[in-house]
Amino acid sequence: MTALAHRLSPPELEWDLEPALDVATRAVAGGSLPGIVFGVVDAEGRREILAVSGPTAEVHDDSVFFIASVTKAVVATALMLYVDEGRLDLQAPLSRYVPAFHGQGRDEVTAWHLLTHTSGMPDIPVERLRSERPTYARVLAETLASVPRWEPGTRYEYNSSAWSLLSETMARLSSSTWPEVLHQRLLGPLDMRDTTFDGRALRDRIVPVDGVGAGNRLVAELLLWFLARVRLPGGGLFGTAPDLLALGQALLGPGLLSRQAVEDMAKQQISGVPHIAEDGSVSHIEHGLGWRRAGGEWPTRERVLTHGGHSGTRLWIDLERGFAFVFVTNVWGVPSDVARNVLERVYAACP
């Protein structure tokens, strides 16, 4: 299998990213991934974006990828704008902002619980979303009708559908619709023009996700239609490498959020809170406000904002070293080893 590696713009960074590009090229040539776009930006906006195309995926800097749960990082950043403005108290009951969400333990749930996946709220399985293809209103209604399964704040369990409570909070605070709020508050100001829940106008540039049947044109159109209707704040955005780097750069420097808000997103929020797996085993998770923290097999860094997506996307912002890294590909459920190996070479190149 062959792979075509290329730089997508003249490099503005004086970093040697050839070793990182070599890792990506070998991954595509070896069939691990169909195609890869990755890039780096520093706090001053100097960046470099590179791509590796394979026989089944020709990719460019404007190629649009389904970024899946990296959506949460985008939404969390938008939510923190309201915190900075004093309009949202992360520790207040969400019922203050969404009055329909009250009673039977719901009044104990806060935005902080949702951002840290400790709300106890039930999730809607991906399989159900695929088969039933609900609207945003239906997902929100089901979430509003659900109750916490345990005391909020006492247990970690990853959740996507309950993030509709956060999107509804922002919509109500801005007296607007959820997609309009996200565009007005974050995507528009950062010129993230290709980041959207509705990918239908971008279909010619979308790289289909392997493993979900999106290679079939009819299935791909149904998925685009469904995602445009459901507008999942927990994992429904499309985006590009340049757009995600724009978000990374904005969080590295002043202007978007206060330094306190950024540091709070990066800080461990759930020390001592257990994650109980289906087999009963107990572990502890490193998690900030809406963002993951560096840990596990990833490079260990204290002041890092990161999030991944089930489609292979990874956004990584090192506040200490002053750079953001993005890696986008298109395989559902792909292991993160290639992205991690590319990132390790980026760190080696960082001056």
Question: Summed up, what is this model?
Answer:
The chain contains eleven helices and ten strands. The chain is of the alpha+beta class.
Please give the alpha-carbon distance between the first and last residues: 34 Å
| CATH topology label | Beta-lactamase
**Total number of distinct structural domains:** 1
CATH architecture: 3-Layer(aba) Sandwich
Query: What structural category do the secondary elements indicate?
Result: alpha+beta
Total strands = 10
CATH top level? Answer: Alpha Beta
Give the oligomeric state of the chains in this entry, treating copies of one chain as homo and distinct chains as hetero. Answer: single chain
Give the strand line-up of the largest sheet. Answer: 1-3-2-10-9-8
- Spatial shape: globular
**Element order, helices and strands?**
EHEEEHHHHHHHEHHEEEEEH
Discrete helix count:
11
Unreliable runs:
none
Name the helicity range: 25-40%
Q: Give a quick account of the main beta sheet: strands, pairing sense, barrel closure.
A: 6 strands, antiparallel
